[in-house]
Design a protein that fits this description.
By secondary structure, this protein is of the alpha+beta class. The protein has two domains: 38 residues; 136 residues, Sulfite Oxidase, Chain A, domain 2. Helices cover 31% and strands 30% of the residues. The chain has four helices and ten strands, in the order H-E-E-H-E-E-H-E-E-H-E-E-E-E. Strands 2-1-10-5-6 form a five-stranded mixed β-sheet. A hairpin with a 5-residue loop joins strand 3 and strand 4. The protein is globular. Pfam families: Oxidored_molyb (PF00174). It comes from Spirosoma endbachense. Keywords: Signal. InterPro entries: OxRdtase_Mopterin-bd_dom, OxRdtase_Mopterin-bd_sf. This is Molybdopterin-dependent oxidoreductase.
């Protein structure tokens, strides 16, 4: 009988320690995911790598675009034109986007590891007619959990596969 109680007394504290460790890890991951969602980084082949907070992005001029989401319905998205963010970071755009610079591209990454690619000329208004947007709201409301706080919206694409959700970073690279 004495051995049973001895084992029970050592097992219970071990269970409590294990449960505490699991809870701490869960909260750490939850906070890390929340922080990853509120910060946007722009890096790579830029002159001014950026780390932008929610307040920084909210303070920037916003524009609106209309586009059909996977549900087939048109929605009004508001956010910052991707080109404006790239200009702020010093990406090669406008008159400098010629010659070898035409093989530069942007890789947009989500917190879940999903990535999409855009050639810089398709983002630049000197080459393209559409505005690719880093949206932070849809139909007048903030983007819902699991979609926002930032989402790339590409009006006019037949499939919204590049409408990447939960954007965390943009990296400019050379295709060479």
């Amino acid at each position: 009988m004495h051995n049973f109680f001895l084992n029970q007394n050592t097992v219970l504290p071990n269970c409590i320690r294990y449960a505490s460790a699991v809870l701490c890890l869960f909260f750490f991951l939850l906070v890390t995911r929340a922080n990853a969602q509120t910060v946007l980084t722009i890096s790579g082949e830029v002159t001014k790598p950026l780390t932008l907070q929610v307040a920084d992005l909210k303070a920037m001029p916003h524009t609106s675009v209309t586009g059909k989401d996977r549900d087939g319905k048109e929605h009004q998205y508001s956010g910052i034109p991707l080109v404006d963010l790239l200009k702020l970071a010093g990406a090669t755009l406008g008159g400098e986007l010629r010659g070898e610079n035409l093989v530069k591209y942007a890789v947009v990454k989500a917190i879940d590891g999903y990535e999409v690619l855009f050639a810089l000329p398709e983002i630049d208004p000197e080459y393209a007619t559409r505005t690719i947007l880093l949206a932070d709201s849809v139909d007048g409301s903030p983007l819902p959990q699991g979609v926002g706080p930032y989402r790339v919206v590409v009006p006019g694409e037949k499939k919204p596969a590049r409408w990447i959700r939960e954007v965390k970073s943009i990296e400019i690279r050379f295709a060479k």
